[in-house]
Request: fold
Amino acid sequence: MIELPEAVVLSNQCNYWLKGRKVDFVVVNSKPHKFAWYIDEGRHYQKLLEGKSFSYSTNIAGYLCLYFEDVQAIFHDGVNLRFIETEAVHHNHQLLIRFTDHSQLIATVAMYGGLYVTEKGVIPTPYMNMSIENMNCLNPDFTYSYFISKASDNMSIKAFLATQQRFPGIGNGVIQDVCFYAGLHPKTKIKDCSESELRHLYEKLVSTVREMIALGGRDNEKDLMDHPGEYKVLMSNAQLKNPCTKCSGSILKENYMGGSIYFCPRCQPMKKA
Reply:
């Protein structure tokens, strides 16, 4: 899933690899995917993109935004974006952008994801609008006061960090390690945390995301060139067989709020008032 660290890394890579390239042709949804979301089923993507030159890329929190002159291509959630410098034939994709030098940008969707091509300036989803309105944790003005203003007593830590775009670009994947470093169980209620614990959570949110970016993303996600990131994720399904890096105890998995949480019961005990 594209979360804030991956969106930043992919944006930087697009600015490097796509510079000066001009779109030759576009193929939309060669392999139909039930949960690949388009604008008007992608009917106008070819007309919008073909003949346009890549201008620059940026990210709006967890949304990766590519600009081709006056047109934008926006990707989020489970979109996997790969750049290939060869003319190899690819059929199984949800969007293919081929450039005049025969290099290709290929987008596939895992689980679900948005691939929106529109005129520049269009905000394709309400969630993207929330990402614009709320401050992400990389902003220099992202203070503890701002962070805690988004909390309410009965929220769990997971609900606080990963829902309603309170902290744009932060999802269920990133928060697992944040909670681990903060020593807090994802189910713990805000009201059951001390101020020092919440300040520590704030600090770990900012520092963990910055570390993920500095290391090229998480190792369970891949970059534009199909390479995994170098940040070693500690709390994920792949780590269940490994001992906790702090106490050597077992890492547990539970279903919670429509997804999975991973935690060490020794290092992240469930707190109750």
